[in-house]
Amino acid sequence: MVHSIVNLLQKVPLFQDFSELELENMAPLFAVRSYKKGTVLFFEGDLGEELFLVHTGVVKISRLENSKEVTLALFRSGDFFGDMAIIRKGLTRSATAETMEDATLYQLSRTDFFKFLEVSPSLCLKLLEVTMDRLRRANEVIHDITLLDVRSRIMKTILRLAVEYGTENEEGILINVKLTHQQIANIVGTVRESVTKVLQELQDDNVIVIRKKMILVQDQEALQQKICYL
Q1: Which residues touch 71 (CB under 8 Å, ≥6 apart)?
Q2: CA-to-CA distance for 18 and 141, rounded, in angstroms?
Q3: Which residues contact 110 (CB under 8 A, 6 or more apart)?
Q4: Widest pairwise Cα distance in the chain
Q5: What is the pTM of this model?
Q6: What are the 10-residue block averages of pLDDT along the chain, 230 residues in total?
Q7: Measured between alpha carbons, how far apart are the two ends of the chain, in Å?
Q8: How far lies 158's CA from each of 3, 169, 175, in Å?
């Protein structure tokens, strides 16, 4: 198990400045947990005492806005989350985390996480960089809500998912996350019917193909050109 954690940590920007020996010493501090699809890891408002690192599976981060679920982020292998609430003792979770499929996670307690911060100033800088990047993405979403209509927001979301989760093949870019129309709607902040209509339009125009709930972007340029700013 130690070897598995070390291999994963070496791919996580937050821990890349640590030597292999240092990572091997850290490994026993991570508790490994397996979760079934649909398991809530924590709710918005819970006390934050652990950092989570995704080994396998997908974790959804969401909030309730006016009784509607809004998906803020999707995390996969090599991603970490839960860092904001553990920075200062007593802070609560700002969102809810739930597994979208069976998942294996490594969990690190707040106490152990701070041991790393004390011995590695570079870890503090890396954490700040990640925080700023996530803030930039949040600002981009706010920008899109302001300047794009729902149809264009759906298309922009597909493009963003292709960049973040896509793998290229001879047909285009495959988004390696299974998403229902409702889940896409929760990311965009709209209703399922709007997503269904736009996805059908894009399929009719041979811009995308949907296979087993995964979207294949066949023509990224055409998708970009369809986005209309207000």
Answers
A1: 60, 61, 62, 183, 186, 187
A2: 33
A3: 48, 49, 50, 51, 86, 89
A4: 56
A5: 0.84
A6: 79 81 85 96 91 94 88 91 79 92 93 79 79 82 81 94 92 94 93 96 96 94 85
A7: 52
A8: 35, 17, 9
